[in-house]
Amino acid sequence: MSAAELASNAPPPVVIDSHLVAVDVRGLSKRYRLSSGATDLSPTGSAKKPKKPKKTGRDFWALKDVSFTLNRGERLAIIGHNGAGKSTLLKLLSRVINPTSGEAFLHGRATSLLEVGTGFNPNLSGRQNIYMNAALHGMSLAEIDTKMKAIIDFSEIGQFVEEPVKTYSTGMRSRLGFSVAAHIDPDILMLDEVLSVGDASFQQKCLSRMDDLTGNGRTLIFVSHSIGAVRRFCDRCIWLSKGEVVMDGPVQKVCDAYEASTMNIAATYQAPSAAAPAKKTTAARDTKQAVFDQDASEAVAALVSAKVTDAAGQPARSIKINQSARIEVQFDVLKPNLRIEPALHFKNERGELLFVVAYTDPSKPDALNEPGRYTTVAHVPDNLLNEGLHFVTIALVTADPLVRHEVIERAVSFSVYEVIGDATKVARGRYSRSFPGGLRPRLEWATGRNDD
Amino acid sequence: MSAPSKLPVIHVRPERGAGVLSPLEVWKFRALLWQMTVRNFQSRVVSSPLSLVWGFIRPAIMTLAFVYLRHVSGADFGTAVPYALYIFSGFCLWFLFQDTAIQVAGSLAADAGVSQKVYFPKILSPLVIVLSRWIDVLIIAAAVIALQFWMGVAVGPAIVFLLPAMATLLLLAFALGVLFAGLMIYHPDNRKFLETLLYLGLFLSPVLFSKKILPEVAQDFYLFNPMVGILSAIRGSMFAPERIDFLAWQVALVFSVLLSCLGLLLLANAARNNSEKI
Question: What pTM was estimated for this model as a whole?
Answer without folding.
Answer: 0.73
